[in-house]
Amino acid sequence: MSVYRTPSGKSWRAFLKYRGHRDSRTFDRKQDALQWLTEQRAEIDRGSWLDPARARIPVGDLFDLWLDSRDVQGSTRRNDRNVWTAYVKPKFGRLALGDVTVTMVREWVSRLRTKKGPAAPRTKRDALRVLRNVLDYAVEDGRIVKNPAAGIRVAGTKGTPGQALSMGELRTFVAALSESERDVALVLGLAGLRWSELAALDERDVVRVGPRMFLMVRRRRVLDEEGRRVTLPGTKRGSEVSRPVPVVPELVPIIEAHLTGHPMSPLFASRQGSRLDSRNWRREAGWVNASASIGRENLRPHDLRHTAATAWLRLTGDVKAVQALLGHATATMTLDLYSHLLTDSLDRATDLMAQGLAADAEQAEKSKKKDHEHPGTGGAGS
């Protein structure tokens, strides 16, 4: 490692040689050249030094590697590629990894545009998510030390997760649907399944463990990259992921009524006997009119999942249980989505805590009074 003046005499060059790697940087001031070398030495001493040459590849060279590393398929994969192509690639596709800065990312997000004008907050969030994940992959691959997009957030995208119905609204809504389609809506609203998971259920996925019934979520019905509906293994979290969903007693006879003794048949089938399609099912169920009957014109099937999550959290206050029910990767994710619903649970917990403290204080007072009325008679030899 050394610092020397360039032949022109107008700048300083810092030279680094380490484990066969050679690197040099030119600076206007000797002080800056020395500072750069000091930082490199510190990284080497900490064992966190990275070969700068590995950060000179274009960001675009990592996109396909990152996408292939994800355990996702179908529409999720297609959407990620569309977001990359439309918004991220034009700015960062040919840019070297090491040249991406926090300021650059922040300005790109703030100025992002679509063909119709300034991009909506959700579009910005999706574009930033793809870029951030590609750069995370670069960090994991030892190409850059930190992700310059890690701490950037998009204003206007945080909020409650869709609409959640009260139990009264849910029952009114279900009653307004076509009679033959009510079972599906009630299962969605009480079990918290994603539509893709419910549509992929077979009769073999209904299992009993002792007195309890469970739905084993092992597959999902989704659109592939060509727009065709296919059944894939696993859940939204990946092809190797499955989970048991407990069936509340109200749903047990409903599910039993759909069992025909054919393990490989869909548990919930269309009127034609095929797997359910969300658009066709909503039309046949009278979804629009039923939504209007409770004043929720923009209600989606996914909102019934939010309804189940809300009910389970409010009635149990058990975040870990709701995490398992929904199939979230972490309890933190569940809290991020539904923390605003825990007020009732905290109120109940506070009341129970107050009752417990009052009972302890009362018991302590009784013990103190008893000791006062019956003092000990200790003496020599006692």
Description:
The chain has a 3-stranded antiparallel beta sheet with strand order 1-2-3, covered by helices on one side. Strands 6-7-10 form a 3-stranded antiparallel beta sheet. Strands 4-5 form a two-stranded antiparallel ribbon. The radius of gyration is 30 Å and the shape is extended. The chain starts with a strand and ends in a 9-residue tail after the last helix. The model has no long low-confidence stretch (mean pLDDT 84). Among the domains are: 48 residues, Single alpha-helices involved in coiled-coils or other helix-helix interfaces (Up-down Bundle); 81 residues, DNA polymerase, domain 1 (Orthogonal Bundle), CATH 1.10.150; 138 residues, hpI Integrase, Chain A (Orthogonal Bundle). It has 15 helices and 10 strands. The protein is 48% helix and 12% strand. Helix 6 packs antiparallel against helix 7 and helix 12 runs antiparallel to helix 13. The protein has 382 residues and is α+β, with helices and mostly antiparallel strands.
